[in-house]
TrEMBL record:
Pfam family, one: Helicase_C
All copies of domain Helicase C-terminal, residue ranges: 661-800
Alphabetized SUPFAM superfamilies for the sequence: P-loop containing nucleoside triphosphate hydrolases (SSF52540)
SMART domains: DEXDc, HELICc
Protein's UniProt keywords contain Hydrolase: yes
Descriptive protein name: SNF2 super family
Annotated region (Disordered), positions in chain: 1-47, 608-643
PROSITE patterns linked to this entry: HELICASE_ATP_BIND_1, HELICASE_CTER
GO molecular function: ATP binding; DNA translocase activity; hydrolase activity
Domain Helicase ATP-binding residues, every copy: 314-493
GO biological process: double-strand break repair via homologous recombination; reciprocal meiotic recombination
Record's GO cellular component terms: nucleus
Alphabetic keyword roster: Hydrolase
Length: 800
């Protein structure tokens, strides 16, 4: 056969192969053959590289690259030399040869991971010096942020120290930024920086677990009370020596059956505590435990775990025995504390010894009697008889403190007193007893001083008690600095230093809530807020009244009623604004006058204890404003005009219409105001309409407040109850009313929230309606908007 007619064996495009590959039968393994046969080295060749990758290209000669079209049977297209042929579809297998899957090195390459815009590193930095000795420089920890080509140096509070182009920024390098020499250390994740965990105030502890489930009881055997057998006597004696019969702690019988249906188990035997290993299962007394709702059971268990040392967290991850129960108003925080007190007074996880011998409950003066009544309601005097010491008792009060503090005194295990009274007698309690076992602070937002140097806080710390339970429905009122103060008293050192906390958490979070905040500020604020919640989650327990009480109480409806000021109010308001704009020397006094004017024009023009006749505003006398009153309307400064005249106040006119629409003897209304002079005007209007009115403000002695509230709830106090925001806005149960009117708003939203919760709470049997009156186009609208902004800051703590 001629040479040109010889068949091309193994040609790639041969239609029929003359050397077919022998394949083994299905399921039969082919015998091993050495690659290359007689010439083994021929089988080991270099990896294939396409000639299109490295071969020199002659752009004058077209080179064709055969390939298979996307469409089966379509003619193959060609590419000119120097152009990469697109690889579309799979290569068509050769006839008679096994189909070989070849991977395209370009198409199968892993996609490149995009480099982050910013890189974060921990670093050390010091002032540049001519000395080359490293030890002669003062090095400080910091954070370096590299966003090519700029590197920013921050201190450990997040404050920018220097910024500049310093070259490559990787681990182990040294660079100069401004006047600083910087040594780059380890890489820091973006999440750690944004949350503040990488900064000085961040947490180095592992993420805390969620609220613990009820502990499992190890011994499921039927409950049997302890009997006085010989073996039990030997075991008790051995336990007092610190060991059991076999050298180990003996598990004792609990005081109450943990296997009974509905039993509330606080802790099981075998749990490690700071004082040792527990050997008794602690169960809440069923006498009071059966009254607890699910969220209250969680709250009691939370407080117990904190005070016995089962929880740790914060910046250092250390154990703290204080906590903050931040359930909203009206959710039964008092009952939860009573259940905790009764449990700790009678039981303990180690040898059954009670954890608490003496406890102090500090609260506002108006709530001392309320605490006494609640303890009597749930436990009776036969189980627990507290000692109530209210303010204004003089020498008699001092004697009560001295008697209660005697070491052998066992009749009154619990002392209930006001903050003011305790401040005067804290040293007496501390000297006589050497400290107490449990301190409960009701309405703990009173301890919101950031410096912690007030007389009240000093008196409470003098009691030398590390088990501290703080109660408040509004843990954050104005800013996060107040929250820091409350938590630093409950758990000292939990959030670190106050100045660092302000820079790392407080300032970024509050800046992110501003309407002009940038996207980056919002991102940092959200991350810092989440980190702060993580750091405090083990020691703060929150619950929403809207979610819980809605299942157990009648419905509540809230209205924000925007009221147009009367013509007299509007004219005087414009005049005061113009005078204040010209002078502007006393803006705070001007704001107070505008607030009083929004309540009633007569409050501004007449002296009612909150200002003197003829006081100045904006460089002019108030008496000169009479000329600004529109014609045909009464002069507010004229004493012959009733202060409750409807021309004096648009809100008062609306309130009178509401009261006239009430059903006498059925509907009862609580009217709340921050000004006692406003309550005077409302009382005059109510007396003109007829009917009995009850009133509670700062002038009512503490020992008369509880009987006054009880009389109103029982239906003997009339249909209207006038309440001062500051004196009676906390802790009171006014469930006898089914309506509440908030006549004016406070700059502090917590004061209004406390007052609004007096009616819709445990014990309410009727649907509740709440009205908030706001004068349109005035400073009251600004106050209302400010309250909403502060509410956003408070929401950063989230829920449990």
């Amino acid at each position: 056969m001629a040479e040109d007619e010889e068949p091309a064996r193994g040609a790639p495009l041969s239609p029929k192969s003359t050397n077919p590959i022998a394949r083994p039968a299905l399921g039969v393994r082919a015998p091993f053959k050495r690659p290359g046969g007689a010439n083994p080295g021929a089988a080991f060749k270099k990896p294939f590289r396409s000639p299109m990758m490295n071969a020199p290209v002659d752009r004058g000669v077209p080179t064709f690259v055969a390939r298979v079209s996307e469409t089966e049977g379509a003619p193959a297209k060609s590419s000119m030399a120097g152009q990469m042929a697109p690889l579309i579809g799979k290569p068509k297998p050769q006839v008679g040869l096994a189909a070989i899957k070849r991977l395209n090195p370009i198409a199968t390459a892993k996609p490149m991971v995009p480099t982050p815009d910013k890189l974060y590193f921990s670093c050390l930095y010091a002032k540049r010096k001519s000395a080359k000795n490293r030890s002669s420089k003062s090095w400080v920890d910091g954070i370096a942020i590299n966003q090519h080509p700029t590197t920013t140096l921050l201190d450990m509070t997040g404050k920018i120290v220097a910024k500049g182009k310093a070259g490559t920024c990787v681990e182990g390098t040294t660079m100069e930024i401004g006047n600083w020499e910087v040594e780059i250390q380890d890489s820091v994740s973006e999440d750690s920086f944004l949350s503040g965990a990488a900064l000085a105030g961040g947490s180095t502890a592992p993420p805390p677990a969620a609220l613990r489930a009820p502990p499992a009881v190890r011994n499921a055997a039927p409950f049997r009370p302890a009997v006085g057998s010989i073996r039990d006597g030997i075991a008790a004696a051995s336990q007092r020596r610190g060991g059991g019969l076999n050298g180990a702690a003996i598990e004792r019988q609990p005081l109450h059956d943990p296997n009974k249906e509905g039993a509330i188990v606080m802790s099981s035997a075998g749990v490690d505590l700071p004082e040792g290993r527990s050997n008794v299962t602690v169960v809440v007394d069923p006498f009071i435990g059966r009254h607890l709702r699910p969220h209250q059971r969680d709250g009691v268990r939370f407080m117990y775990e904190c005070v016995v040392g089962l929880r740790r967290g914060g910046a250092s991850g250390s154990i703290h025995k204080g906590c903050l129960l931040a359930h909203e108003m009206g959710m039964g925080k008092t009952l939860q504390v009573i259940a905790l007190l009764w449990t700790l007074l009678k039981q303990g996880p180690i040898a059954g010894k009670p954890v608490v011998r003496k406890a102090v409950i500090a609260c506002p003066a108006s709530l001392v009697g309320n605490w006494g009544g609640e303890i009597k309601k749930w436990l009776n005097d036969t189980r627990l008889e507290p000692l109530l010491v209210e303010g204004g008792e003089g020498a008699d009060g001092k004697q009560k403190f001295e008697d209660w503090a005697l070491p052998n005194q066992r009749r009154h295990c619990v002392l209930v007193t006001s903050y003011e009274t305790l401040r005067s007698h804290a040293k007496t309690v501390q000297k006589a007893t050497g400290g107490i076992d449990l301190l409960v602070c009701d309405e703990a937002h009173r301890l919101k001083n950031t410096k912690g140097d007030t007389q009240t806080i000093a008196a409470l710390r003098a009691l030398r008690c590390d088990r501290r339970v703080l109660l408040t429905g509004t843990p954050i009122q104005n800013d996060l600095g107040e929250f820091f103060a409350v938590m630093d008293f409950a758990c000292p050192g939990l959030l670190g230093d106050a100045s660092v906390f302000k820079k790392v958490f407080s300032t970024p979070v509050e800046a992110s809530r501003d309407k002009h905040a940038t996207a980056e500020e919002k991102r940092i604020g959200a991350a810092r807020s989440a980190e702060l919640g993580r750091m405090t989650r083990e020691f703060v327990h929150r619950a929403s009244a809207r979610d819980v009480n809605a299942k157990h109480l009648p419905p509540k409806t809230e209205y924000v009623v925007f009221v147009r000021p009367s013509p007299v109010q509007a004219a005087l308001y414009r005049a005061v604004l113009r005078r204040g704009a010209r002078d502007g020397s006393q803006p705070l006094r001007a704001l107070q006058q505008l607030q009083r004017l929004c309540n009633s024009a007569s409050l501004l023009m007449r002296a009612r204890g909150e200002g003197e006749e003829g006081e100045d505003v904006g460089g002019g006398s108030l008496s000169d404003l009479s000329s600004k009153v529109p014609e045909g309307y009464p002069d507010p400064s004229d004493p012959r005009v009733p202060a409750h005249d409807e021309a004096m106040s648009g809100k008062l006119a609306v309130l009178i219409r509401m009261l006239q629409g009430m059903r006498r003897g059925i509907d009862k209304t609580v009217i709340v105001s921050g000004y006692t002079s406003t309550l005077d005007i409302i009382a005059e209007a109510c007396l003109v309409m007829g009917g009995k009115v009850s009133r509670l403000d700062g002038s009512v002695p503490p020992n008369q407040r509880v009987p006054l509230v009880n009389s109103f709830n029982a239906g003997r106090g009339g249909d209207v109850f006038l309440l001062s925001t500051k004196a009676g806005g906390v802790g009171l149960n006014l469930v006898g009313a089914n309506r509440l009117v908030l006549f004016d708003s406070d700059w502090n939203p917590a004061n209004d929230l406390q007052a609004l919760a007096r009616v819709w709470r445990d014990g309410q049997k009727r649907p509740v309606t709440i009205y908030r009156l706001v004068s349109t186009g005035t400073v009251e609208e600004k106050i209302f908007q400010r309250q909403m902004l502060k509410g956003d800051v408070a929401s950063c703590m989230g829920r449990n």
